[in-house]
TrEMBL record:
Keywords: Oxidoreductase, Signal
The FAD-binding PCMH-type domain, residue ranges: 122-307
A Pfam cross-reference name: BBE
PANTHER family the record matches: FAD BINDING DOMAIN PROTEIN (AFU_ORTHOLOGUE AFUA_6G12070)-RELATED, GULONOLACTONE OXIDASE
Cited SUPFAM superfamilies: FAD-binding/transporter-associated domain-like (SSF56176)
Source species, domain of life: Eukaryota
Protein name, per record: FAD-binding PCMH-type domain-containing protein
Length: 571
């Protein structure tokens, strides 16, 4: 039945492929004469399972300020909650991507702070779209976008630091409600021999990590997945397609190393199940080549692992002297390769006078955990004579899931205007350039994620499309800027300039190390190499093969160099 549908939709698309451009080379956005009429949208609505959606910015219930259309108290309360934000098609996790800055400096936005006196404007939020529940819904949406040459964006949860889930005047395919989850202890990929089985979890595109983890745990399993407060990051969306890191990555590899099979709708309307046996090129590209680029993923099947106990190590240090703080940053970085190779994964941050870190390791005793972290604990104690005070300790958890629930259940972290850059610091950089890197990380008060090394380094760099720099990486560092809403375009430009300095300094120091596509800025230098390394050319070929209509384009995504800055006109 589905095959017949696919064949039909291929035919339908075939018939208007030739007319899909109006020869300006530009896509149609809301407000232009080319924008479809109400009747044309009604025709689309008749082909999909849900009413069309009309996304609005997160704060719109607070307007008009004198007589709010909704419950503004609730909006303020939920502002930082990633699950609340992802439940709305117009809400981005970082609200700056809901706003649009005109060339003349005027900002179109909808601020939570109504005292700023602005009206609520649509900004960068798409105006209409499809609440997709099935591959057929997505096929209909793709047909429609191609027929009218619309600017299309794909939004899942909206956890996105490059604004890829939004687009001014765009038509959106919203995958959040594709919530199916199935555990199969005997999963065989399509086309694989019957004896090739996995204990696997298949998640629909809209499933979020908190849901995936809970279902895995009900089956005694855990998995490599994203960690954020509230667990609202999508398990089957951009996280995976950009690489996907986890505190379990030093033990089990990246998200891309743990995906077994992916289902995807391409711009030709084809609904494909891709894996190592069929459409293996597309399977390769979807594992690290970037979200919103090759097609719309509808489900992902992951390996799972036996639920194991974990030990958490935490350490905190205060420093009184800038010179010593920089020395500490370098010293802590230098110790990371041994820790990741033993299986430790975790998250830390450097202030200008302090450091915090916590990490976990599965399936070892507290005694063993103590032995392997001793070099770090001792290193910090050794700095006591230079005015550093530190504390370290351990918590044992009966299972990884218990740790997850303890630390990550509460919502938060979102709703902040933010831009940042990342760097995947290699083994070589940490051994030889740690003190130079420390200068920059001190300056930006960096965070560091210990989510590579170990197993990540042992996997063939060419086995997945993801940036080969990951295979040399030990930690990912991030430097960022944030601001209060209401900041002027000039103030934001000033922060952007600061960010660009950090990007350039880190790039110059570590030109081979690359950055993580999902945690980066719109201003990365040589982004093709920085995000995809030597895989770029192959990724572009696969992109051209599976997206011949060039429907999918995102900022700094594969093939986006063929578009203008707004991603609305081909160069
Ligand atoms: C062609 O596209 C341009 C840019 O999107 C738009 O301004 C124009 O109205 C379109 N023309 C037609 C005939 O649809
Ligand atoms: C608005 O939301 C707040 C917080 O969730 C709640 O306490 C209050 O009852 C709501 N008000 C109305 C009128 O629904
Ligand atoms: C800036 O440009 C936008 C879009 O063209 C326009 O709506 C706005 O009025 C302009 N603002 C100023 C201050 O000129
Ligand atoms: C809201 O904006 C007003 C006016 O700029 C400012 O005084 C106030 O501190 C802001 N409130 C919050 C919560 O940011
Ligand atoms: C599956 O069966 C084939 C042929 O009998 C055998 O060569 C292969 O090793 C088996 N694979 C697994 C994973 O058991
Ligand atoms: C900071 O520490 C360094 C190294 O211990 C020392 O040389 C320097 O004098 C200290 N600076 C201050 C301001 O205490
Ligand atoms: C890492 O471990 C090896 C082997 O145990 C040891 O020789 C080396 O000194 C350690 N590196 C650091 C930086 O502590
Ligand atoms: C240290 O960081 C704090 C908070 O970011 C900042 O207010 C302070 O000025 C910084 N101090 C120095 C010496 O850079
Ligand atoms: C956990 O550790 C035990 C004891 O060292 C070992 O026998 C077992 O194989 C490990 N389990 C896994 C899943 O790694
Ligand atoms: C870790 O080992 C050291 C040295 O044996 C010991 O002093 C310390 O109490 C241990 N820490 C914990 C939390 O077990
Ligand atoms: C570091 O400073 C913070 C804030 O003053 C304090 O809460 C913490 O206990 C201190 N940690 C150490 C190890 O001294």
């Amino acid at each position: 039945m589905l095959d017949v549908f696919v064949a039909l939709s291929l035919l339908v698309i075939g018939s208007f492929a030739g007319t899909s451009s109006n020869n300006t080379g530009c896509l149609c956005t809301f407000g232009q004469p080319c924008w479809p009429t109400e009747d044309q949208f009604a025709e689309l609505e008749s082909q999909v399972s849900q009413p069309l959606i009309y996304p609005v910015p997160s704060a719109s219930p607070c307007y008009p300020a004198t007589d709010p259309s909704g419950n503004c108290t609730q909006v303020a309360q939920e502002w930082v909650d990633g699950s609340w934000r992802s439940s709305m098609p117009g809400s981005m996790e970082a609200p700056n991507f809901e706003s649009f800055i005109f060339k003349n400096g005027t900002i179109s936005a909808c601020y939570l702070n109504t005292s700023l006196g602005a009206s609520c404007e649509q900004g960068n939020v798409p105006v209409i779209g499809v609440d997709a529940r099935t591959p057929q819904d997505i096929q209909a949406a793709i047909n429609f976008a191609l027929q009218y040459d619309l600017k299309l964006v794909v939004k899942n949860t909206g956890h996105d630091f490059l604004g890829r889930s939004a687009g001014r005047g765009a038509f959106v395919v919203w995958t959040h409600n594709m919530k199916s989850i199935t555990y199969d202890a005997q999963f065989t990929p399509q086309g694989a021999p019957a004896n090739e089985t996995y204990q696997a979890l298949t998640v629909g595109a809209g499933v979020q990590w908190y849901e995936a983890y809970a279902t895995a745990n009900q089956n005694g399993r855990m998995m490599v997945g994203g960690l954020s407060l509230g667990g609202s990051v999508g398990a089957g969306g951009g996280w995976l397609q950009g690489g996907g890191h986890s505190a379990l990555s030093p033990t089990y590899g990246l998200g891309v190393d743990n995906a077994i099979e992916i289902s995807v709708v391409t711009s030709t309307g084809a609904y494909l199940t891709v894996n190592n046996n069929q459409y293996s090129d597309l399977f390769w590209a979807l594992r690290g080549g970037g979200g919103g680029t090759f097609g719309i993923v509808t489900s992902v099947t992951y390996r799972t692992y036996q639920q194991l106990p974990v030990v958490m190590y935490y350490v905190q240090a205060n420093v009184t002297n800038a010179t010593v703080m920089k020395e500490l940053i370098g010293g802590v970085l230098r110790l990371q390769p041994n820790l990741t190779d033993e299986g430790w994964g975790g998250y830390g941050s450097f202030g200008n006078d302090s450091m915090d870190f916590f990490g976990i390791i599965p399936n070892v005793s507290t005694t063993a955990a103590n032995i392997s972290t001793q070099p770090l604990t001792d290193y910090l104690l050794g700095l006591e004579v230079q005015g550093v005070s530190s504390v370290a300790g351990f918590y044992a958890f009966d299972s990884w899931y218990e740790w997850y629930t303890y630390l990550w259940s509460e919502a938060g972290q979102n709703g902040v205007n933010i831009m940042f850059t990342s760097r995947l610091l290699s083994r070589d950089t940490l051994a030889n350039r740690y003190s130079d890197v420390a200068e920059i990380l001190y300056d930006c008060q960096a965070s560091f994620d210990m989510i590579a090394g170990g197993k990540v380094s042992q996997i063939d760099p060419d086995s997945a499309g993801v940036n080969p720099a990951w295979r040399n990486a030990i930690v990912e560092t991030t430097c960022g800027v944030s601001w209060q809403e209401g900041a002027t375009a000039e103030e934001i430009a000033g922060l952007t300039d600061q960010l660009k300095v950090w990007i350039k300094d880190t790039y110059d120091l570590t030109p081979q190390d690359g950055a993580y596509f999902n945690e980066a800025s719109l201003y990365e230098i040589d982004w093709q190499y920085t995000f995809f390394g030597s895989h770029y050319t192959k990724l572009k070929e696969i992109k051209d093969k599976y997206d011949p209509y060039r429907l999918f384009v995102v900022a700094e995504g594969v093939g986006s160099e063929d578009w203008n800055e707004e991603l609305t006109c081909r160069c």
